[in-house]
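Lab notebook, page 48
Experiment: co-folding of the full assembly
Goal: obtain a model of how the components sit together before planning crosslinking
Operator: M.T.
Materials (sequences as entered):
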Amino acid sequence: MRGLRALALLALALLGLGAAPAAAGPVPAPPGASSCSGCHGAHGEGAFAPLAGRPASDIAAALAAYRSGERPATVMTRIAKGFTEAESRAIAAYLEQQAAP
Amino acid sequence: MSGPTRRAVLGTLAGLAAAPALGQDARGRVVVLGGGFGGASAARALHRAGLSVTLVEAETTYTACPFSNEVIAGLQPLAAQRFGYEGLRRAGIAVVHAVATGIDGGARSVALADGSRLPYDRLVLSPGIALRFDAIPGYDEAAAEVMPHAWKAGAQTELLARRLADLPDGGTVVLSVPANPYRCPPGPYERASLIAHVLKTRKPRSKLIVLDAKDTFSKQKLFEAAWKELYPDHLEYVPLAAGGQVTAVDPGTMTVRTDFSEVRAALACIIPPQRAAPIATAAGVADRTGWCPIDPVTFESRLVPGIHVVGDACIGGAMPKSAFSANAQAKVCADAVADLMAGRTPATPKLINTCYSLVAPGYGISVAGVYRPANGVLADVEGAGGTSSLDAPMEARRAEAAYAEAWYRTITADVFG
Ligand SMILES: Cc1cc2nc3c(=O)[nH]c(=O)nc-3n(C[C@H](O)[C@H](O)[C@H](O)COP(=O)(O)OP(=O)(O)OC[C@H]3O[C@@H](n4cnc5c(N)ncnc54)[C@H](O)[C@@H]3O)c2cc1C
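Observation: model returned without errors.
Model output:
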């Protein structure tokens, strides 16, 4: 299985098909993390700050400030309240590992 | 995986798309049916997880619904709604343009219109909705050519946009809204707002009457506050309790009937009740409600094993039927499919939805939610989510209008780019 997977990834690389992010496959996204890119897209399309590759401590601190309401926001306060401190840290750590756009 | 079956698949793919190198992946075949927000997102996420994916989609060009209300109001060209599948192909996904006519959940294969069969180990279904042309007496497919629904973007969107542009000043416009559940809960009210904006700025003697089959709706307080402020003379809202339920239409006389009255419209937009697309029923994954019950961790059908349903077609519990939800569900579903195929137990997910609406150009509002599986369905995470605040300054409304546009660019690039 592992060998096949490695071969498959190698085939992908050789074919130059889409740069798979380093964390794809084996490192699963923690709960909630895959929803963030609905706005903070991998392509950095304008208004939303790109998160991929940002230091985890920055992301976690921002999420904590949104959760407590200390940092004002249009939408992030409503979203951040859906995640515990531990979940927020896991998401932040995951996002840090994603290739920056 | 038998030889002939494999050849049949390759036969189908030949000339349509180059079979990807990963087609030999021994861990199994995943087919995604439906190349809209849910299906195209699922195909990408499955591919990223290292699985071999074939995406089946009837159309060669996808026409997106989000921002189609802006097209109707003449604020954006329809061309901005169109997306091709080159981006998915470039990423290494096999895209087959064919209509699926049936799904054999026992034999695990999808039947295509050309008679060929596509075998799968797991199928992700995101076929969207069917409009129920049996729900409102008089409102059938022919009537929709006169009284457009424009609830599937494309020719219907153009038709409604043209009719609105051609509306004589002084003409009455009727918009009928169905009961829950339906695609995009705030969508009809965004449409009402933007039609009222057109009337106010270009047809000041006209008026919009919104006939609603329910009494409460998404972002209601925000919409109603904005209507009072912006469109006091151009928008009249009639809830169910005041006789808002449309009981029949007559496209010949342009009449829209309710229990209490009859309106002669110069322009009528009828959004009928909906259900999951026909292929879901054919597959046996839709229940008596017309929608598809799913496991909230894996999105696997409660009715047919091996078939996962995401997007508008699934019963998403507290999650609304939106492009944002479809994209979020697709990613969670893809992770679960990858886990199941590798013999791992999928982790309990959390998902986000956010729907932006424009009540006027430069005036945006939003509703957000965070969801988790609870008691077998997707439930709200309490304390999270909700709408933009009622007393937010105009600056925040402007920011949310800009975020709405940014979201559309981001999500379409994420899915089709
Ligand atoms: C006016 C309007 C405004 C909206 N605004 C927003 C918004 O601002 N934000 C938001 O998040 N959502 C919005 N939505 C909702 C959004 O469009 C839907 O929720 C979204 O499209 C659902 O995605 P899906 O993948 O479930 O279905 P779809 O996008 O409908 O995709 C289904 C695909 O499956 C294909 N298909 C179906 N059956 C078959 C078959 N048998 N064989 C082959 N192919 C098949 C179809 O051709 C289609 O391409 C809006 C909707 C409307 C109508």
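Interpretation: The interface with chain B takes residues 1, 4-5, 8-9, 11-12, 15, 17-18, 20-21, 24-25, 28-32, 34-43, 45-48, 74-75, 78-83, 87 of chain A (CB under 8 Å).
Next step: discuss with group before ordering constructs.
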